[in-house]
Amino acid sequence: MIQLFHVTKQYGAEAPALSDVSLEVRKGEFVFLTGPSGAGKSTLLKLIFCAEPSSGGQILVFGRNISRLKPSAVPYLRRSIGVVFQDFKLLPHRTVAENVAFPLEVRGLHPREVARKVAATLRGVGLDHKGSKFPLSLSGGEQQRAAVARALVGDPALLLADEPTGNLDADRTLEVMALLEAASARGTTVVVATHDRGLLARHKKRIIALESGRVVSDGDSIRRAAGS
Amino acid sequence: MRQVLRLLRRAVDALRRAPLVTAVAVGTVFVAVLLTGLVAALLGGGERLLAAWAGEVPISVYLAPAADLAAARAAAERLAPGMAVEAVTPVAALARLRASLGDEAALLDGLGDEVLPPSVEVRAPGLSLGRTRELAVRLRQVPGAVEVDYGAAWLERLETLLRRARVVGIALFAALALATSVLVANTLRLAVYARRDEIEIMKLVGATDVHVGAPFLVEGALQGLAGAGLAVAALTAAAWALLPRLRAALPLAARLTRADVLPGALLVGLLAGGMALGIAASLLSLRRFLRRT
Prior knowledge:
By secondary structure, chain A is α/β, with parallel strands linked by helices. Chain A has eight helices and ten strands. In chain B, 73% of the residues lie in helices and 7% in strands. The chains are: A alpha/beta, B alpha+beta.
């Protein structure tokens, strides 16, 4: 699903945000990407959904080398990837339903089909009664669930979540993680960037740890726990 | 068709969501098109007035003293059909000269009645300079004609003046169009900037540049058309209100019509120009934001 070979990312003359990163995420896997702030977690996700180009190395997503992808092909790749952003990126002047409908509208789906899928997805994240509300009238947890709904509404093969529980209390964190695990159970490959150690401890998944832009460990949490 | 309607609905929705930015963009296009139209109307009207002024100058066909004035007049009427032709005898010519000299008329005392040549005068109001020149050449065929005078030197100067005015007008028009394009582009850039988050999110969820850009271009076209439409309405209203006063104040402008100052082609051009300006400005602004994500 995702393969990185010696990937680097450098912003100007600063120290590289990613340095010689090689890893593979297989289809259907649920992977945590962890590390302290500035370790390169968000940068890695951005490279995977082509928000930024890499400075070196090769990245294969769905078997396609995205370093060689034409700009005109990027939108079509992104349609297979759902992204949950750390800052939600919900448009405040659009209703929750309109925000969630975005990925379907850009694909040119019929409005009836859009409405049907949006309603089903909102029901799935427990926001079916909030579709006509505006994001700023929702709680932080509800906004995060709306962001997850937008990422899931297009049935993506790959779901990337950048600190999806960063602004949430423990109960809301459980809710959001349950949504991501449900997506994983349906066959979606899920990559979650987080620095929340509690989250890593509670969910026994593969963990890729980054530090100063390098992969410092890669294995499942059970093995890591046994090794420590 | 469904896609076009959806596109239009998206554009209108977006315009409604940002009424202030829409008003500023429409206002900017309005001012730009109004100024451009005003310059074009002034140039067109001015040219028309100068041409009318030139048409007021009579063409005089001076005859040999022994020429048959009646035959010359008949020939002139044939050569200038539909125009006012007047035969001027030497006596009548001297009387006109006396009248024009006023208090100095005494200078002519002692001259004989036949001192001035007989002539035929042709008046062709509203005739263009080129047509006046052509008519003068034809009138040389009048029997007994010695000289045809249509104020050539004066008219040539007038023609040069018109030519220069046209060049200055075109330069002014181009400078104005460029300046207003920059102004409109900057205003519409504000409109695009105000929605940069929306553009970013649309791109991140897989929208193509065409999907993101099309509504903005439609918005630009609608804003341009609205601004230009208001400007055309204002110009037409101004012409409707001012032309009767100008006609009353200036005899030369008696035949000046709305179509002379604001011809249909100019109005259509202003509408199309306003729309094109809106689209071009949106396109310029969009390119910067589309490249970012």
